[in-house]
Amino acid sequence: MGKLFKKKSIEQLLEQSQNKSLVKTLGAFDLTLLGIGAVIGTGVLVLTGLVAANDAGPAVIFSFILASIVCGFAALCYAEFASTIPVSGSVYTYTYATIGEVVAHLMGWTLLSVYLLTMSAVANGWSSYFNNFLEGFGFSLPKELITIPANGGLVNLPAICITLLITWLLSRGTKESKKVNNFMVLVKLFIILLFIIVGAFYVKPSNWTPFMPYGIEGVVTGGAAVFFAFLGFDALSTSAEEVKNPQRNLPIGIISSLVICTIIYVAVCLVMTGVVSYKELNVPEAMAYVLHSVGQNAVAGVIAAGAVIGIMAVIFAYIYAATRILFSMSRDGLLPKAFAKTNEKTGVPTLSTWLVGIIGALISGFIDLKELANLANIGALLTFGMVGVSIIILRKTHPTLKRGFTMPFVPVLPILSVLSCLFLMINLPKTTWLYFSIWIVLGIFVYVGYSRKHSRLTSKEMKKAS
């Protein structure tokens, strides 16, 4: 049993943070934009309308605030960890240092599913905006090529194409691709600001009545659903080894991106549900739909064009994050070594990048958006809860460890974080729990069949014993 819970020493991890195979190119501004790029995407451009129509009505703003509070607790935990142990791998690395290898493996396995599914769901949503953009020029793709088989089509071809295009971009290197990402994020922020300013002139307060048509239960259900919209700030902690001055810059990037995104979500939801009745918002391209409904077709066209560019930043962030998780697990021997190999010219783990991109492309082309969102939610909630547990353990085991950022009110806030995550998990559908359980069982088989034998910690122990 002890072997299952063997831990990486903090000294080992800090030594790893000096890893030279990944190039340090990211500053606080890059991280904040990477975080905003990952968070602001399908959540604000797609899920806002769907959740308002089906779960919470105008009270969807409370759903977003509830989700942001839960994320805020987790963000503080992430900020302390990222500033203390600036190593790629996010919660996978943190649980490896505090709880043990088998839990770390399952957390890494879960993160892979979260990042892959989120990226695929985002690509799926991007396709609707892309087609809406084309329709502005009097051209549209055949329905069979933008619709998944379950909804009567053949394939969501644009989703596949955009995922592969961004995979290629990331394979060119972090330094080059971050410039493109920063541009995409700034475009996205521009169109959201444009929507808020133009839409505000058409708000009718009567559309906010009834404000909470589905009651408190609807707000909580909506909170569990829109939690997906906040996934992304945690992806920053996967970039730790590519960050300049991570002790300072990582906490700034994590906390600032979450605060900015929460303000944006609330503003967009107030305008959206104020311009049209929440009952009309059950559409994937809600922002463009709202503006079309008040005759602002030109602005709607600009928003559709900006969304096409802006949502690409989310796909970028998640392919990047999933690749770094693969890299970290592979470097530790829990997955095949080939995934940890970096290209000499670009410093990028090329095989990992293309594997993540191809799998994500196939998922986005053939699987339903709502199913993807819920599966990503349950995995993210579990990993966020585990970060809270890990912070409490780290404070007990390493009280004098140098911390760039210190989370306040430990253990109260981490415990609240864990309980909040559990509360939202309980409100997810039973089918989501079933699919997620299957993924976890598969992860256990991978650990028992491969990871346990090939773990670098195991091989070091065997060398010592001999």
UniProtKB/TrEMBL annotation:
Domain of life: Bacteria
Listed Pfam families: AA_permease_2 (PF13520)
TM region(s), chain numbering: 31-53, 59-81, 102-126, 146-171, 183-202, 214-233, 254-278, 298-327, 348-367, 373-394, 406-426, 432-450
Compartments where located: Membrane
Any one GO CC term of the record: membrane
GO molecular function: amino acid transmembrane transporter activity
InterPro entries, per database record: AA/rel_permease1
Keywords: Membrane, Transmembrane, Transmembrane helix, Transport
Membrane topology recorded in Swiss-Prot or TrEMBL: Multi-pass membrane protein
Name this protein carries in UniProt: APA family basic amino acid/polyamine antiporter
